[in-house]
Design goal:
172 residues; STM4215-like; 2 helices; elongated
């Protein structure tokens, strides 16, 4: 799920005007070598919740005439990412946040073809309105993005090929 989240967020960041090289994991501390306009990612722990529902039925690849594969959801996985957009320019930051949010897709498919829902939950502003004298004006907006997907199990089921009806009611 982390790889999918990184891909979705990077594509939205590029659409918002942030270069791919400026999308990075959150560094341990601020340095001058970091790009002035960047998107920092912080991955929070995922939560799992048991779920049981049938998702799909399709022909088995090895025996399509005699078997079907039944896919059932075993768990619902919720993955939270904190994406922090950092800039020296307040007006650019505001525009970049709006473009980033509009570029986030609502639904994507993971590597197994299962549906993953993408939601931006909240945005926190930082670096605004400090009472201290600021030498470097770094403004930031942290957006909490939730990815909700599923963990599924596949089971092959043999199809019923013949039916023999036995009539026990009629006289012989």
């Amino acid at each position: 799920m982390r790889t999918l989240a990184e891909t979705v967020i990077t594509e939205a960041a590029v659409a918002a005007g942030i270069p791919v090289s400026a999308v990075m994991d959150k560094p341990d501390k601020e340095t001058v070598l970091l790009p002035s306009r960047r998107l920092q990612l912080e991955f929070l722990p995922a939560s799992l919740r048991p779920a049981s529902r049938m998702v799909a039925k399709f022909p088995t690849a090895s025996h399509p005439e005699t078997h079907r594969t039944v896919r059932r959801q075993a768990y619902e996985r919720t993955f939270l990412v904190r994406a922090e957009i950092v800039s020296d320019d307040e007006s650019w930051l505001e525009d970049a946040v709006l473009q980033f949010l509009s570029a986030l897709p609502r639904r994507v498919a993971d590597g197994s073809g299962n549906l993953v829902t993408v939601e931006a939950l909240k945005a926190e502003l930082g670096g605004f309105g400090g009472k201290l004298v600021e030498v470097f004006t770094r403004r930031r907006t942290a957006i909490h993005i939730q990815f909700t997907g599923m963990i599924c199990r596949d089971r092959d089921v043999e199809l019923i090929r013949e039916v023999n009806l036995v009539d026990n009611v009629s006289a012989k």
